[in-house]
Each structure stands twice: as C-alpha cells, then as structure tokens.
Amino acid sequence: MTRDDVFERDALIDRRAFYLQAAFRALLDATARPGEVAELPRADEACAADAAEAGLLAPTVTVADVLLDAATSVAVAGQDTEAARVISRRTHALGAPVETAPYVLLPCSVRGDEASAAVASLTPGNLLDPQLGATCVVECSALVGAGPDGSRVGSSSGEAAASAWRLTGPGIKDAALVECDRADVLLARIGRADEFPCGIDLVLVDRAGHVVAIPRTTRIEGVA
C-alpha cells in the first residue's frame, strides 16, 4: 500500500459514529430491562439545534437518530409539518399520519386528552405482522426510576405533577417502579387493552437524557 492509498479519518464522522453507537447501546439496554433507567449520550450542538427547530427535546432527536432511517416513517403528534420535516431531513424517514406511522414522537407540549387520543390511535400491528405495532417516544418533564445499580436516578423539572407506576412482565425481576408526569399516556396505554402479540411500545425520555422503555409485554399499574 502506498501513501496515496491511506485515507485520512474524518473526526466529525467518527464522533457521530461513536455517538450513535452509545445511543443505540443505551436504548438497547433500556429495552432489554423494561422500567430501568438508561442514559443517552449528550447531544451535540447540531442535534440540539434541530431539536429546538422541531420543538422537541434533544434526547428525543437522539432516539430518533437511532430508530429512524429511509426505510421507515414517522409522525410527530400534535405538531405541524415543520417538526416532521426537521426529523425527516435529519433521519431520511418519511412523514406519515399518527394512526399508521410505525414511529411516533409525542412532545412535552402535547398533553391531556390530545395525548390520550394520539396514544389510543396508534397502530397495534396485526396477528400476521405484530412487528408493525407502533413505537411511541414520549417526552417527560419528570422521569425517575432505578438505574443499573439499583439507585434511584432521573430528573424532575417541576412543570407537571409526577405519579408512580408499577411495571411487571418479561425482563423485570418482581416489579419496577417508575415515576413520571405522563399519566395521560400511561392510562391511554392501559386503556388500549391490546392482545399480545399485538400492541404498542413506549419509550419515555426526559430533558436530561434519561430513557425508560415499556414494551408491549409490560403490564402497567398505577400506584396510589
């Protein structure tokens, strides 16, 4: 090999590759251990700028970077086309209606009846193709749970009252306790009563980059 055959490494491409690898691993860990809090890598300036333009949290865009590509589609619930346009530009995913999109982003600004209706309308897939059930990335102002070492981690901005939820099912030893401010979303998920293998998956994420996965196999109960 001659000197002319050696290519210089691109530092920017390297940083993005490492960022995506770390984000993928965090999301994989969260999915493998439902109810446990994982931490996403810190978003760079470009990610933060795109998030601000889309009206989303930077960690939400990080999750979108991992989940989306040109082979899938996405909806941003309760938002105009600008938010979906920013996400599509960044990930190359096509825009789609909330009712049919395999991936849906639910911003902090979408709450109450509007959020409940969005969750209720998500596609559960069908018995022949249950993998078509939607994944909904839900932004939280408060999200607290157990980290990998068992300690309580998370954040709370005080913008909305948090409530406690007990999670049980595959991947959870005994039960996991999660506190968040998205009772609207979790109650709507309970109310769907999807029959396995159909259903929807939730990914809760906060401003600090904490993430909790609630797969369709996970049972949710409110804690008084």
UniProtKB/TrEMBL annotation:
Top-level taxon of origin: Bacteria
Keyword Transferase: no
Keyword line: Lyase
Pfam families per UniProt: PhnH
Keyword Lyase: yes
Molecular function, one GO term: lyase activity
Any single biological process term in GO: organic phosphonate metabolic process
Protein name, UniProt field: Phosphonate C-P lyase system protein PhnH
UniProt source species: Thermophilibacter provencensis
